[in-house]
Amino acid sequence: MKLKKLQRRIPRIAFKGLLLSFLLHGPLCHELFSQSFPISADWGPNTWARGGASVASALDHDAFTTNPAGLIRFYGQSSIAGSWGRWILNENKWSASMVDGTRAVVGGLQFNWADKDDIRRFSYNTGVAYNTNYGAAGVSMNIYDFSGLIEHNGWGVSQTAGILIPIGYGFMIGAAGKAFVDRMNDNLVPPMLSTGISYRGFGAVQFNFQADRRFSVPDQDWNFSFGGDVITKKFYSVHGGYRYDRSREESFWSTGLSLEAPKIKIAGVYTRGVGPQDGDDGFGFNLDLVF
Q1: Could you count the other beta carbons within 10 Å of the beta carbon of residue 7?
Q2: What is the Cα–Cα distance from 220 to 211, expressed in whole angstroms?
Q3: Which terminus of the chain, N or C, has fewer Cβ atoms within 10 Å?
Q4: 11 three-class SS
Q5: Cα dihedral 267→272→274→279 (10° resolution)
Q6: 130 near 138, Cβ under 8 Å?
Q7: pTM for this entry
Q8: How many angstroms separate the CA atoms of 253 and 33, rounded?
Q9: pLDDT computed for residue 21 by the predictor
């Protein structure tokens, strides 16, 4: 009799154990993914100012992590830059970088420090770009050091590669791929594809469009960024942008102002979320010295 009662109880015990395991580990897995950095963790103030639309335009030192082919804009000169930002989604970031464009192959180094909630990511980036008759190509190696995660803390190596191709009449197309051939955990650095087009005309106006998507992680879709610049003849430019996010992050609008002289560029940007966290805002600054 006791044996029969035990046999009837075994399925119930197994079900309760399975339910308990799900309750304990399900939130844990979700928290692990929710702690990963958003796409915008690779952006500096100049990319934020254009709503994240950067892959088809050469936006200074942000090129190390958005599209390394953009480093070609420093051909014939060298540059040192630094930036700081407190952004939406509880992101804080600062960076320092240098680029040498005095040779046929433009190359440089960059260090990024990013905080989000209780996790921290250091990234050490080295990149090169080369110009051809058909456009520019570039690649960067991205070395990461994560801390504060539930698991997968420590070091990892990834890469970013991209192209910029002028197609005439002021138009340029760009594309970049990130982390497609590395061995890092995809929750930390998901594979990502970015494509876009830019137009510069009328001597002082530039428009940028970008579509990007992460892969191998849940709830991802194509996101769209729109950016614009009005460049004046009095050493300053006005920027603006909007990002429509469809991947569990945040849509936002942005605006910025750049002061430019022959050897120095100072930029500031303000952003404001328009999604579930409407009212969440952020701002940042960038200093670029050219010599």
Answers
A1: 9
A2: 13
A3: N
A4: helix
A5: 180
A6: yes
A7: 0.86
A8: 25
A9: 40
> How confident is the model over 76-111, as pLDDT tens digits?
999 999 999 999 988 999 999 999 999 999 999 999
The pair of structure tokens assigned to 144 is 């990461």
**pLDDT, tens digit, 9 for 90 and up, residues 116-142:** 888 999 999 999 999 999 999 999 999
Of 44, 2, 54, which is closest to residue 225 (Cα–Cα)?
54
Find the length of the chain.
291
- Nearest Cα residue to 63 out of 146, 114, 121, 126: 126
Residue with tokens 């979700």: 30
Q: Domain 35-290 maps to which CATH number in 2.60.40.10, 2.40.160.20, 3.40.50.720, 2.40.160.40?
A: 2.40.160.40
Q: How far apart are CA 30 and CA 25, in angstroms?
A: 9
Half-sphere exposure of 46 (CA within 13 A, CB side): 26
* Tokens 């910029």 belong to residue: 164
Contact between 276 and 246 (Cβ < 8 Å): no
What is the sign of the dihedral through the CA atoms of 263, 87, 240 and 68? positive
> Which phi and psi angles does 42 have, rounded to 5°?
-90, 5
Q: Tell me the domain boundaries of the chain.
A: 35-290
Structural tokens at position 261: 């002289």
Please list the residues that pair with 99 across neighbouring strands. Answer: 79, 108
- HEC string for 13-26: HHHHHHHHHHHHHH
Which residues, 6+ apart, have CB-to-CB distance to 133 below 8 Å?
none
